[in-house]
Write the structure tokens for this entry.
Amino acid sequence: MTPAVVISGLRKRFGDLEVLKGIDAEVQPGEVVCVIGPSGSGKSTLLRCVNLLEVPEEGTVVVNGVELTHRDVDIDAARRGVGMVFQQFNLFPHLTVLENLTIAQRTVLGRGKAEADKVARQNLERVGLAERAASYPAKLSGGQQQRVAIARALSMNPEVMLFDEPTSALDPELVGEVLAVMRSLADEGMTMLVVTHEMQFAREVADKVLFMDGGRIVEEGTAAQVVGDPRHERTKLFLDRVLNPNHLE
């Protein structure tokens, strides 16, 4: 089976700061890979390099058999197979929910209005918001806006979905509804690379967990291995602090 994503020797600098120090990772089709680690460890930068929102200094990224880092690649065409959901929802405030879901379909994929509307409504149904098609983003809760953002990404028919801490901007009581949508996508077999602080989600849904620290992958394995029984001291310390926030050293 050809991997959905292959990351090899990835290095990224911002000025003198090397944020990624030689990352190697793979995501298989239908696999959910969660990336965990402390703030500043390079998790979000790694994700942004996968669809070249950040351009690495060294290394290669291959998605769906296409090397995105190749100098001759049609990056716009290659990106069409990759959906991305950010911490912030990035919805157009002056457009309705339905219009937010159809604008890229029509301008990027060239779909007609009827087809774009049909795809949009199907994906709003998937995220449990079919009845909010005519609403404007300001009338939605943060959790609903993030679910709309997921539906918007799905409307482009991606083969791989990237999630960059999709619940970090949400009030705690709204986190569950977004994670429930992500669980259903995993159950459908969507290939997903997820940067998250939600350890329970990683434990329950991830096929593989990568623990990053200081721009490197320190530990990787199944969720049971990395979250449930970490081997590396740095992983143990991180998880102890995350899972036991009131624990005093």
User: Anything to note?
Assistant: The beta strands are 5-14, 17-27, 32-36, 58-63, 66-67, 82-85, 160-164, 191-195, 208-213, 216-221. The mean pLDDT is 93.
